[in-house]
Amino acid sequence: MDSRWKKFAELLRVFGRGAIVALLTPAIVNSDVRSTTQTLSASLYPLGKVTVSPAMALARSGQPFSAHSGTLPVNYVVRTTPGGGGSITLQAASEFSPYGGPSIAAGALTYTCSGATLGTACSGAQTVSTAAQTPVLTLPAGACTGGGGYCSSADVNSVSIHFAMPNNPSWKTGTYAASVTITISAI
Amino acid sequence: MEVFKMKKYFWVGICGILAAFAPLASADSASGTTTVSVTVGPEASLTVDTATTSLTTTGTVFNDYTGTTNLTYKIRTSTGSGTGSITAQVQADFAANGPSVASGDLTYTCTVSSPGSACSQQTASTSAATPVATFGADAHSADTGNSASTTWTLKNRPQIKTGTYSVTVTYTISAT
Question: Taking the complete model, does pTM exceed 0.80, yes or no?
Answer without folding.
Answer: no
